[in-house]
Amino acid sequence: MLKSAFTSIRSVGIILFLITGGISSYAFQCYTDKQQCLTWSNGCLDQAYDYSTEAQLKKWDISITNDCFLRFRKTYNNGKQEYYSFKLNRFSDLDYWGTAHSGLLRIKTQANDIIVQTYNDPKGNIDSMTTVLSIPAKNMEPERLDSLRQALLQLKML
């Protein structure tokens, strides 16, 4: 009697473990090819960028290229441009400060690997390097953030 109860508990435990593993693997998507990973990552970054927090923003573009460079360009109404770029093999980590509704997505590299350039800046053009790229974000649920992190890590290995 006691042995059959332990067997039943163990069977239920194994089933719960398999179900939980299936749910967590859904949250941490596994991409079968590079193009699928690029498409999902670009869509996620495009939808997550909260351009409404940027005053006087005329246009913007954020993308990951086929050669695994993350590029982010902002153009303001006065003609000033800000440009950020780095190769994903230098990607270190991803943080998010804020709520699921709005916050700040912080993409980190291993060292000063992010190129920062400004053009047509009344204060003077800048050409420098940094370790963290901060992007205003919206609608960033924890599962989506984890999936983005996993996609960037996978692209880092390519």
Helix-strand blueprint:
Blueprint: H1 2-27, H2 34-48, E1 57-64, E2 69-76, E3 81-87, E4 91-98, E5 102-109, E6 114-119, E7 127-130, E8 132-138, H3 142-156
Antiparallel strand pairs: 1-2, 2-3, 3-6, 4-5, 5-8, 6-7
Protein described:
- With 158 residues, the protein is an alpha+beta fold.
- The protein has helices at residues 2-27, 34-48, 142-156; strands at 57-64, 69-76, 81-87, 91-98, 102-109, 114-119, 127-130, 132-138.
- The longest helix is centred in the N-terminal third of the chain and has 26 residues, at 2-27.
- The chain is globular.
- The termini are far apart.
- Residues 16-28 have low confidence and may be disordered.
β-strand percent reads 35-45%
Distance between the termini: 55 Å
Number of domains: 2
By DSSP, the count of extended strands is: 8
| Whole-angstrom Rg | 21 Å
Strand order in the sheet with the most strands: 1-2-3-6-7
The chain-level structural class is alpha+beta
Helix share, percent: 25-40%
- Shape call: globular
Sum up the structure in keywords.
3 helices, globular, alpha+beta, 8 strands, 158 residues
